[in-house]
Amino acid sequence: MQKETEIKLRVSRDTLAALRDHPLLKKRNKSGWQRHELFNQYYDTPERDLAQARVALRLRRDGEQFIQTLKSRGQSVAGLSERNEWDWYLDKAKLDPKKLTDDCWPADLADLDKKALKPIFTTDFVREKAEIAWGRGK
Q1: Of 43, 53, 76, 95, which has the fewest beta carbons less than 10 angstroms from its beta carbon?
Q2: What is the pTM of this model?
Q3: Cα separation, 83 vs 72, whole angstroms
Q4: Using CB atoms within 10 A of its CB, is residue 50 exposed (0-12), middle (13-18) or buried (19+)?
Q5: Is the per-residue pLDDT at 86 higher than 70?
């Protein structure tokens, strides 16, 4: 389990190009820009029990990797989104409910029949990212 803290920024293509060329970001860019095509399938029950509990369960394809992710109820802290997240790398594009143990599964969903989890919707997008070092952090 890891705690995910993120800020997401949406910018126009022109603004992104200007950011990439900005001397300060060029100097602090430790990873180079990376482009990922992500294909995501989100799961829930027909009654939307996970959505009501503010929990997300997803199966993602990133290149040749399949990643099952459970995200807990989040909170907003100083404008940042913060939540617990569990990732499992799978051999195939098939949800593995056995990974959803009491260690990660929300207590208020303990009685939920995980066999009732079905694909609900998909999101496919391209993510462009870079690791920017700032001070002693990143």
Answers
A1: 76
A2: 0.81
A3: 6
A4: buried
A5: yes
